[in-house]
């Protein structure tokens, strides 16, 4: 049985209105690769490490699918839209 894959991201959004364009674009990749949000924004506090104003954890059926989604043409277009409005720290990891 394959282990699930996850994206774990800390995002510091400078321009929320501009960031909405990224959110609209990432939907195509997330639907194509079966992404499921475990954490999306919500209340939180940075206890250690870099600051951010949004936390995201996204689950995929396996690690390979999580990597494929990140590297997909659909998501690469979304990254370009995000870079203008937010800085992200993002890791793709395999679950336990």
Description:
The protein is of the alpha+beta class and 96 residues long. The protein has one domain: Alpha-Beta Plaits, CATH 3.30.70. 39% of the residues lie in helices and 31% in strands. It has a 4-stranded antiparallel sheet with strand order 2-3-1-4, with helices on one face. Helix 1 packs antiparallel against helix 3. The N and C termini lie close together (11 Å). The model has no long low-confidence stretch (mean pLDDT 95).
Short structural summary:
The protein is of the alpha+beta class and 96 residues long.
DSSP, total strands: 4
SSE pattern, N- to C-terminal = EHEEHHE
Mean pLDDT rating = 95
Main pleated-sheet profile? 4 strands, antiparallel
What is the count of DSSP helices, taking H or I runs of 4+ residues?
A: 3
Compile the SSE list and pairings:
Elements: E1 5-13, H1 16-32, E2 36-40, E3 54-60, H2 63-71, H3 73-83, E4 86-94
Antiparallel strand pairs: 1-3, 1-4, 2-3
Helix pairs in contact: 1-3
Essential attributes:
96 residues, alpha+beta, Alpha-Beta Plaits, four-stranded antiparallel beta sheet
């Amino acid at each position: 049985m394959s282990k699930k894959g996850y994206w774990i991201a800390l995002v510091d959004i400078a321009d929320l209105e501009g960031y909405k364009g990224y959110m609209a674009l990432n939907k195509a990749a997330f639907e194509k690769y079966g992404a499921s949000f475990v954490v999306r924004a919500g209340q939180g506090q940075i206890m250690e490490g870099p600051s951010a104003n949004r936390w995201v954890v996204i689950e995929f059926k396996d690690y390979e699918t999580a990597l494929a989604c990140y590297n997909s043409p659909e998501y690469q277009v979304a990254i370009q839209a995000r870079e203008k409005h937010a800085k992200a720290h993002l890791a793709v990891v395999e679950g336990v």
